[in-house]
Amino acid sequence: MQHVNSFRAFLRDTVNLSQAKLDLLDSRVEAIYKALRNDPELGPLILGKERQGSWAQRTIINPVGEKEFDADFMLHLAEVPEWADSPRTYVDKVYAALHRHSIYKDMPHTRKCRCVQLRYANSMHVDVVPHLFLVDGREVIVNRDDNQWEQTNPDGFTAWMREKDDIADDNLRKVIRLMKFLRDHKNSFTGTRSIILTTLLGERVSQATALARPGCYGNVPTALLTIVEDLDIWLQARPDKPSIADPSGSGATFDHRWNQTTYSYFRARIHTHAQEIREAFDEQDHDRSVRLWRSLFGGSFPSLPGTSSPSRAPKFAAASLLTTATRTGRAG
């Protein structure tokens, strides 16, 4: 059973980051930005800021259990010719500015590969990501570990996400949030970064699928079933880690963000979860269906009276799709 209204309530009350936490995030980012702008050394280089990652794409979720929630923002900086051979300097300068601040110097803050992370006790952390438009035309962030630039296109990623969500009847972002919650709740495929999960789920959404299977993205549980089963088919045709291109068109890949071991585990877990989602969706007994959904998402998944939709989604030529994927070697 689909339990459409139960999914709606589950997203609203459990999965989605609350408005209070979003407001807190906004206020803290504004305070960090103001502090950096007022820094005498870094301030003159700052050109602006912009949300990044799950915060920007509206796929951020409420933390599960005792975990923190986190958000990224890009700090737009002017290029300094003297630092041309040392991109990591930009991360170091942001770190130094926070380290000089009267408040933030006493809070946990550390340099990561692409950002400076500032942690708030028992609640959240914020990643400050230096971002530049270089004089040669490249739009970049910093890889501090390798001391080099990484090309990026956040506007392109946002446009890609909007296009895919439109095709999926505004349900792709909800499916991504559900799968991130499932990952954290079950401690499943935790080695797979959110950007990879988001990309792989989004790339399975297509206009061709929507036309071939009318209604396959029509509500949240149906979209969840469709997208995860299609991802499972795609993964099962690829025992070796595939190259995952940045869908923004930046020319970059996310290949360095996981390895064969991580990929193999993710592939196996998605295969299991696809079967579990199918079983819960197809189960015609109301109480048993609720129990099956709860085995995936936990006891906070509600059972609302009069909201179940007893339907059985056809297994849309899954075998033929898998055959095609195997024959071509790459699909989707």
- List low-pLDDT spans: 317-332
Rg value: 21 Å
How many E-type strands? 7
- Note the gap between the termini: 28 Å
Oligomer: single chain
Number of separate domains: 2
| Main beta sheet | 7 strands, mixed
**Percent of residues in β-strands:** 5-15%
How many helices? The count is 12
Give the overall pLDDT as a whole number: 92
Mind explaining what this structure looks like?
With 332 residues, the protein is α+β, with helices and mostly antiparallel strands. It folds into two domains: 17-152, 2-Layer Sandwich (Beta Polymerase, domain 2); 156-328, no CATH class. The chain is built from twelve helices and seven strands. The protein has helices at 4-15, 19-37, 53-57, 88-100, 154-167, 172-186, 194-203, 207-212, 220-236, 260-282, 286-297, 318-328; strands spanning 46-52, 69-77, 109-111, 116-120, 124-133, 139-143, 148-151. Strands 1, 2, 3, 4, 5, 6 and 7 form a seven-stranded mixed sheet that branches. Helix 6 crosses helix 7 and helix 10 (260-282) packs antiparallel against helix 11. The longest helix is centred in the last third of the chain and has 23 residues, at 260-282. The two termini are 28 Å apart. Residues 317-332 have low confidence and may be disordered.
Annotation keywords:
disordered C terminus; Beta Polymerase, domain 2; alpha+beta; 7-stranded mixed β-sheet; 332 residues; 7 strands
SSE diagram, text form:
Elements: H1 4-15, H2 19-37, E1 46-52, H3 53-57, E2 69-77, H4 88-100, E3 109-111, E4 116-120, E5 124-133, E6 139-143, E7 148-151, H5 154-167, H6 172-186, H7 194-203, H8 207-212, H9 220-236, H10 260-282, H11 286-297, H12 318-328
Parallel strand pairs: 2-5
Antiparallel strand pairs: 1-2, 3-4, 4-5, 5-6, 6-7
Helix pairs in contact: 6-7, 6-9, 9-10, 9-12, 10-11
